[in-house]
Amino acid sequence: MTAEKTIDGMRSLTIGEVAKRSGVTVSTLHFYESKGLIASTRNAGNQRRFPALVLRSIAIIKVAQRTGIPLAEIKNALGRYPPNSKLTAAQWREMSSAWRESLNLRIRTLEALRDSLDNCIGCGCLSLNDCPLRNPDDTLGLDGPGPRILEARRGQR
Q1: Spatial separation of the C-alpha atoms in residues 86 and 57, rounded to whole Å
Q2: Which domain of life is it from (predicted)?
Q3: Which of 32, 49, 92, 150 could form a disulfide bond with 12, CB atoms 3.0-4.6 angstroms apart?
Q4: Where are the domains of the chain?
Q5: Could you give the CA distance from residue 85 to residue 57 in angstroms, rounded to a whole number?
């Protein structure tokens, strides 16, 4: 299929082409669009068309998601620039520095979780008086013995 050109001369891709090139499903692209992360236009036949630059936005979204950045944060960061735009080096530095503290906090949290897992045998609340992962200061122990979190989920609390 030959790519169409938009009014401004930019290459235009179908949703299938974007899915294939970006490695995400069509339903993911619909989801990203519904959340305002990417934008499309419609051609005369009412079919979605995306500028080729959308591939950069999707790459940023995928990398950010892999690092644990929530979609709301990604949208906030990308929302500072026109949809599907090519970020300049300065804009990229600005966006990445805004994520830096969030990522550093996430890293510290993951390191603490990793270091605490050695003391946990799974559910923890059956064998430990104080589970730092799920039951800080043993607050659930005040309700009685056993896996209180699981019982609360089943409405047995």
Answers
A1: 8
A2: Bacteria
A3: 49
A4: 4-116, 120-157
A5: 8
Class of the domain covering 4-116: mainly alpha
Q: Which residues pair with 131 in a beta bridge?
A: 135
- DSSP classification of residue 2: P
DSSP for 61-128 reads: HHHHHHTT--HHHHHHHHTTS-TT----HHHHHHHHHHHHHHHHHHHHHHHHHHHHGGG--SS-TTT-
Q: What whole-number distance in Å separates Cα of residue 55 and Cα of residue 106?
A: 27
Q: Which residue has the tokens 């805004």?
A: 98
Give the separation between CA 30 and CA 119, rounded to whole angstroms.
43
Task: Show the tokens assigned to 16.
Answer: 């299938």
- Tokens 């940023």 identify what position? 60
Measure the CA–CA gap between 4 and 75, rounded to whole angstroms.
Answer: 28
Residue indicated by tokens 């906090």 = 105
DSSP conformation class of 145: S
Tell me the pLDDT of the chain (157 aa) as tens digits. 445 555 445 689 999 999 999 999 999 999 999 999 999 999 989 899 999 999 989 999 999 999 888 999 999 988 888 877 788 899 888 888 888 888 898 888 888 777 766 666 555 555 455 565 666 666 777 777 766 655 554 444 4
